[in-house]
Amino acid sequence: MDNTQILGYLGALVVGLVLGLIGGGGSILTVPLLVYLLGYNPIIATAYSLFVVGTTSLVGTFKKHKEGLVDIKTGLAFSFPSFVAVYLSRRYLVPNIPNNLFSIGNFTLTKEMGIMVFFSIIMFLAAISMIKNTKEDLLPNVKQAYYKTFIQGLIIGTITGIIGAGGGFLYVPALVLWANIPMKKAVGTSLIIVTINSLIGFTGDMQTLEIDWIFLLSFTFISVLGILLGVFLSKFISSKKLKKSFGLFTLIMAVYIIYRETS
Questions:
Q1: Residue 257 has pLDDT above 70, yes or no
Q2: pLDDT tens digits for 208-233?
Q3: CB 79 within 8 A of CB 198
Q4: When comparing pLDDT for 212 and 83, which is higher?
Q5: How far apart are CA 245 and CA 51, in angstroms?
Q6: Where are the transmembrane segments (predicted)?
Q7: Are 198 and 30 in contact (CB under 8 A)?
Q8: How far apart, in whole angstroms, are the C-alpha atoms of residue 22 and residue 238?
Q9: Which of 47, 56, 71, 91 could form a disulfide with 189 if both were Cys (CB 3.0 to 4.6 A apart)?
């Protein structure tokens, strides 16, 4: 095992740790890790990310549920429209995106580059919403109408399907800012949404891609160990600190991806 592989597996541990702490961010780490460190094509990387994040989040969901930090009804209300949108996006939309999106002079925006840039833009917007918005602290805990949740689930599901993310970095802000769920419960609730979205989205990729199961399962196993550690450590961190840390972490990764893709 060379140094790159060792770093890759250490990264898998961090992926799980981040998911356990903030309920999102697994894909924020997994996709760049697979693309920039391990050299995977972004299309393969986003597919692998769905499986890793989905399986790891499944373990985290059980742990958070035992602590009473999962709002199952709200989670399922987001999940149903989301997983439909994710599956259709991965099965039909992503495979049919043209390899070259457009050209300007000597510059050509490829499908792979476009997905990574779109990924970073969505991350940036989610980060700003969590860093600046104080709605959770100012408003009472009144949940929104389920039809709004349904529409939001469709939109976020389509976005996460395109970028191959579990969507935790989008669902946590949505649950906090739209559904008015406290941060720690939003973290737990997001895991059930991420689990369903990711694993169903991955079934769409299984029909169009060749999967290296030995690598994928070993990477996922280490990530699961990470989420168990993250869930344990989250008990000792306040919701306010989690919210700000989530936003800053997402912002840093968004800037890094834009830098890598444009440099």
A1: yes
A2: 888 999 999 999 999 999 888 888 88
A3: no
A4: 212
A5: 25
A6: 7-37, 43-62, 113-131, 151-172, 213-233, 245-262
A7: no
A8: 11
A9: 71
